[in-house]
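Just curious. Invent one:
>
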Amino acid sequence: MIFRRATKNDVPFIIKMLANDKLGKLRENYQDPLPESYYAAFEIINSDPNQELMVVENENNPEILGTFQLTFIPYLSYQGKLRAQIENVFVREDLTGQGIGKKIFVWAIERAKGRNAHLLQLTSDKKRPSAIKFYEDLGFIASHEGMKLHFK
């Protein structure tokens, strides 16, 4: 598998994966052409050295298998160490259950360690019990209660 930074040309495929998800269907707006807001967000992410929007490809075929975003958060706690956060982990719907998600996390953990992050954190919607079990099986611990305040 090849892990590489996403390009602007990958944005439609990434959004299509997000929109095919049961929760993504409620919040994404996949259409052709994509709304400009997705490209504007990509440019912000792509220009920030603490953001890594990644795609995963098959070595023999440049077809995208999955995607995820790593964010490196500098902060003063833990003696000024970095915290890594992984979000929007998606494997193409027709490829789930083949170990791609686990390979994404193995890569992301090594990348976070390589950037000297002291931890890798994530959030998962409580409506995704199988995803939560998957993360627990990888060694993640539900150590905090997460909260969100959505704005309209």
In short: The mean pLDDT is 92. Residues 123 and 144 are 10 Å apart (CA to CA). Residues 2-137 form a domain with the Aminopeptidase fold (CATH 3.40.630.30).
